[in-house]
Design brief:
Layout: E1 2-9, E2 13-21, E3 27-36, H1 39-46, H2 51-70, E4 75-80, H3 82-85, H4 90-101, E5 105-107, H5 110-122, H6 126-131, E6 136-141, E7 146-152, E8 155-162, H7 166-176, H8 183-202, E9 210-214, H9 219-224, E10 235-237, H10 238-249, H11 253-260, H12 264-284, E11 288-290, H13 296-307, H14 317-331, H15 336-352, H16 354-357, H17 361-372, H18 385-395, H19 403-417, H20 434-452, E12 463-469, E13 472-478, H21 484-488, H22 490-501, E14 504-510
Parallel strand pairs: 1-4, 4-5, 6-9, 9-11, 13-14
Antiparallel strand pairs: 1-2, 2-3, 6-7, 7-8, 10-11, 12-13
Helix pairs in contact: 2-4, 5-13, 7-12, 8-12, 10-12, 11-12, 14-17, 15-17, 15-20, 17-19, 17-20, 18-19, 19-20, 20-22
Amino acid sequence: MKIFAAIDVGSYELSMKLFEFSGKNEMKEIDLVRHSIDLGTDSYGTGKISQEKVDDLCRVLNEFHKIMDSYHADDYKAYGTSAIRETENTMILLDQIHQRTGLQLSVLSNSEQRFLDYKSVASKGTAFNKIIDSGTAILDIGGGSIQISLFDKDSLVTTQNLRLGVLRLQESIKRLDARPEQVENLLDEIAESQIAVFKKLYLKDREIENIILVDDYLAPIMYKGVEGVMAPSEYVTEKQFDELLNALRHRSAFERAQKFDVSTEQANLMLYSAILLKQMLHSMSASKIWIPGVTLCDGIAYEYAENNKLVTTPHNFEQDIIASAHNISKRYQGNRKRAETLEQISLTIFDSMKKIHGMGKRERLLLQIASILHDCGKYISFTNLGECSYNIIMSTEIIGLSHQEREIVANVVKYNYNDFEYYDTVYSGIMTDKTVYLKIAKLTAILKIANGLDRSHKQKFKDVKMALKDKDLIITVGTNTDITLEKGLFSERAAFFEEVFSVKPVIRQRRQ
């Protein structure tokens, strides 16, 4: 048996869930502690969290630490989300928290946070797998933004982030000095333009039957039910939701707080969340809302259990990341057949060089994504392909990848076309991290070789085998076609590969 604590430092609330792993592929929640601190209003409004709230934050985290100790927790993970991420002094704040509480708080990028929210939903198992078999959208409403992820036939189609979080919207309404009866119309106007663009780009011919709601404001009320308004339920129809929305909009904040047994502040955020959900329901013409009753803490625990082999999951999350990359490539009119050829060749090289490069499963995934997105920059420019590809990848969220991992992919694609920049000439950004720099160099060397083997873009090599012999990587290609072009342009790419790995790639043709 193992006890694990998951801590979420959110924009509006701090929460900690304790879980018990019994070794029977089970994840059982044994305690939940919550405390409201509005960090988001400071962070989104001024760029810094006030000292008073930092003191309050550290006090609550110390209480969490004591509770963890009382349960004899074996391990923990503590994450901050957008309110911590968007402060100007994040590193100073994290150091203060560590010094004053003993807890190591990490900051999730938006794509990492939403991926963990997605995993929290997936932790529901069979119910999740069943619902995403048809057109489904996960609507993840946070304090700073909302994330919309579309599924079709068990596959992630796209995921997009809109800066329509409830705390951010609340700040906008306060600045407008709006009367209570104006709030809904103003929120509709603010949200409608962004949601309309999303609909135009991603919902043209797509039927969405279900919306999965993940938030800390409205979902708990819908899940538990409210006497006289709605019964407890995981599934809510559009009609039932309309009744709840009417119950919210026709009461003052104070009346909502009393009726739904929440604070006045949360009562306002519930209304904002409900209005956003209304907009999405109408845009997608969805008929059913699923409330899985989970939070980010469930996703944190689920990922921990996955990584430590405490639970097994039938859903392949890595395939979701790959599917997301394929859809980004499609959006920028990438060559699917050539991407598949590069994937096959580059991953074969990676697997045959394991003893030499020392990289693992995660780096293999990053190489695969770089292969898929290798030509996205052509959508903008053929002559400045490397830089354009870099900018597209860095401007496009890939769910499940951290900011650092996305920058690794972007650099690998960039240097597949551009001359590689050596460490001593690069003094800013991610490249100053030596470990990351070496990963970029190694993955770039592999992708360059794979690209060189299909220089004509005709996918000549259907059968490629690799064998590492002494200081040579023997690349045997089975083809009867003329490969003079590939051999002639191979030497420059091979030189960089040999420089990085001290292994010389050699092409050998085997006629079929």
